[in-house]
Design brief:
Blueprint (H helix, E strand, L loop, with lengths): L6 H41 L4 E7 L5 E7 L15 H4 L2 H9 L6 H7 L3 E3 L25 E3 L12 H14 L2 H17 L13 H13 L2 H6 L1
Parallel strand pairs: 3-4
Antiparallel strand pairs: 1-2
């Protein structure tokens, strides 16, 4: 299995990748600032405050950071006062922002801070941590990314096992060439609206899926077949 071994790849991973992140995120934030301000104004007008969605995620080395996105859901509640399900709170504006990936623009700030990289495994929910295999847990050996190898190879259409395997594959082979390939592929897919599954509210969460698998394994075969 090919791994990071060359001197050039080692230099890229150790410092050059971070330099690229800083340079590109600074340029992108400057160029996209008018668009970001416009999106923020529309979100504020349509959904109110706050404009940004903030949530703790797992970063490199298992440390926590706060991911930033433009809000795509409202705070609608039912008659009992409980917050409605995600699929009922996702707004038409939010769906558009997800389809166009405009909701991800604030993550350039995460990149500039050093929480994230332009390319890497997507940062997932904290509650997923106990459910990773040792190989899948290698995702935390690198900074999480705005886009990644799994995102250009199926995105949310992939099963969790496949998505996490692609992330582990990336960690083993991270290089400047691979990152450039991912960035170019991401741009092409965003512009072509290819493989975009904006409404992910119906997807099964990783912990729920693996809890069900674990329960199924503990069920005797005769009961499983009867069901």
């Amino acid at each position: 299995m090919e791994r990071r071994s060359t001197e050039s790849t080692g230099a890229y991973v150790s410092w050059a990748k971070r330099c690229v992140d800083i340079g590109v995120s600074l340029v992108a934030l400057t160029a996209l600032s008018p668009l970001a301000l416009a999106v923020a104004a529309v979100v504020r007008a349509k959904m109110g405050s706050p404009v940004l969605f903030r949530q703790p995620r797992i970063g490199r080395g298992g440390t926590l950071f706060t991911i930033l996105k433009f809000r795509t859901m409202n705070d609608a509640r039912g008659p009992d006062g409980a917050v409605l399900s995600d699929d009922r709170r996702l707004t038409p504006l939010g769906l558009f922002l997800r389809k166009s990936s405009l909701d991800e623009i604030p993550q350039l700030v995460n990149v500039l801070r050093g929480d994230m990289s332009l390319v890497g495994p997507r940062p997932l929910l904290i509650r997923y941590r106990p459910w990773y295999t040792p190989r899948e847990n290698t995702r935390h050996d690198v900074r999480p990314g705005i886009t990644g190898w799994a995102q250009v190879n199926g995105r949310n259409a992939l099963a969790w096992d496949d998505r996490l395997e692609l992330d582990a594959w990336y960690v083993e082979r991270v290089s400047a060439r691979l990152d450039l390939r991912i960035v170019l592929s991401t741009v092409a897919k965003v512009l072509g609206r290819e493989g975009v599954q904006a409404d992910t509210t119906g997807l099964l969460a990783l912990d729920d899926e693996r809890r069900m698998v674990a329960a199924d394994r503990e069920t005797p075969p005769e009961l499983r077949s009867a069901a």
